[in-house]
Structure formats: structure tokens, C-alpha cells
Specification:
The structure is a single chain. By secondary structure, this protein is an alpha+beta fold. It has a domain of 80 residues: Double Stranded RNA Binding Domain (2-Layer Sandwich), CATH 3.30.160.20. 38% of the residues lie in helices and 16% in strands. It is built from three helices and four strands; from the N terminus they run ββαββαα. The chain has a four-stranded antiparallel sheet with strand order 1-2-3-4, with helices on one face. Strand 3 and strand 4 form a beta hairpin. The longest helix has 21 residues. The N and C termini lie far apart (84 Å). The N terminus is likely disordered.
């Protein structure tokens, strides 16, 4: 059975986004899986929910509740950053005339080089 403890405010953790602190619901839970008695008895796992977006992150991999809380907050910050990320709009540009000439001269030289590698029956124009 999973036992939850709800805290109003996380203990002295620095937030990268200041107003984020008021928008969180933090619960502590027991970790599951291998790890023995310490893992099964201690409430070291942390579940953080961002209330406006409904994003939930869980951290139970460390033995310390404080370390799990900071790991969960880092994950939450990363998810929120990905949520609001908008890539820059690409501005289409044309190649300059000199770069086009340079590219064509390289292609011609490369084609000539490849043509010279051919069989002795091939002829170069």
C-alpha cells in the first residue's frame, strides 16, 4: 500500500522560475522495487505536480528525500521549458552569385577528375 504525505511548501529548494513555487503540489511516497528495508520503509520518493499544466514528475532513485526533490524539480523545469519552447522561424536566403559559381567550378573539376579515373577507352572532352 502506498502512503502519501502532502507538504504545503518544499523545504529550502531554489527554483529557477520564481512563481513556480506557488503552483506545485508536492507529495512524498515510498519507493518500490529492490533496495531492501531502507527503501521499503522510508518516504524518500517525491512526486511533484505542476497544477496549471497537470505535468507530473516522480523521483525515487536516490536515498535522500532532498536529492529526490531537487531531481524532480529539475525534471519539471526541463518539461516546462520544452512545453514553452518555440523554434526560431527560418528566414529563407538565396545563395550569392559568387558561391554559385564556386560550387559549379568545384563540380566541374570533380567531374573531370572522376572522368579521368575511368577505363582507358573513355575519352576526355
Amino acid at each position: 500500500m502506498l502512503k502519501l504525505i502532502i507538504m504545503n511548501k518544499p523545504p529550502s529548494v531554489s527554483f529557477k522560475i520564481p512563481p513556480l513555487e506557488n503552483e506545485l503540489s508536492i507529495t512524498h511516497l515510498k519507493g518500490s522495487g529492490p533496495g531492501g528495508q531502507n527503501r521499503n520503509k522510508r518516504m524518500s520518493g517525491v512526486r511533484v505536480e505542476h497544477l496549471p499544466t497537470g505535468i507530473v514528475v516522480v523521483a525515487t532513485e536516490r536515498r535522500s528525500q532532498q536529492q529526490n526533490l531537487s531531481a524532480a524539480l529539475e525534471r519539471l523545469n526541463e518539461k516546462l521549458r520544452r512545453l514553452v519552447f518555440r523554434p526560431k522561424k527560418r528566414i529563407k536566403t538565396k545563395a550569392t552569385i559568387s558561391s554559385q559559381k564556386k560550387r559549379l567550378s568545384f563540380k566541374k573539376a570533380h567531374a573531370l577528375k572522376k572522368k579521368l579515373r575511368g577505363n582507358s577507352g573513355d575519352q576526355v572532352d
